[in-house]
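Protein Record: Sequence and Backbone Structure Tokens
======================================================
Tokens: labelled as protein backbone structure tokens, with as many entries as the chain has residues.
Question of interest: how does this chain fold, as expressed in backbone structure tokens?

___
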Amino acid sequence: MNQKQKIIQIIENDARINYEKNIMNFIIQITCDYYDTNTLDLFSKTRRREVVKTRQVSMYLIRNNTKINLMDIARHFKKDHSTVIYSKSTIGNYIEWDKDLSSEIEYLQNKVDYHKKTIRRDIILEPTFYHINLDEIISIKLKNDKAIILKGFTSEELQTFDFNEAIKNESKRYHTDTGLSIIEKDIDKEEVKKNND
């Protein structure tokens, strides 16, 4: 596996992990809102009935909607993994005969399903992604939290470099974001210019 493939794999793994965490946090938020429970209480040791129910429903939905393992869910809630197993089992059994709880879970599940459709599960980096060796770049921070990464320019060229012109020049702009521009010197155009001179 080459360097580029390793970077792509790391980014895609991070994207999947962030996707799962996003869903978990969303479930916790909507469950607390629905049952009018303070989010901080969910992670406390309190045994108040309404907090326990909210926690159990959250754990049940997280187990059904994410690939996060038992230990990580338990750690997130500051509980033992047996609490997660018990919560999933308890809610799963109750919804078989408790119509109110069943409709509550259905309502929350519909919200989760809709949320899952609005966020991306993975990132497809090819063909727009490319790897730049850090030894070959120069990073410059501009005003207003803007930054430019330059590749392929000599220090002599930087003395007379016109940043505004370079940013406007679409042929040299390979990537832009709200605060970042990556400009790679177009070697082919430089060669044409030398031959014409």
Confidence is low (pLDDT under 50) at residues 170-174. The longest strand covers residues 137-141.
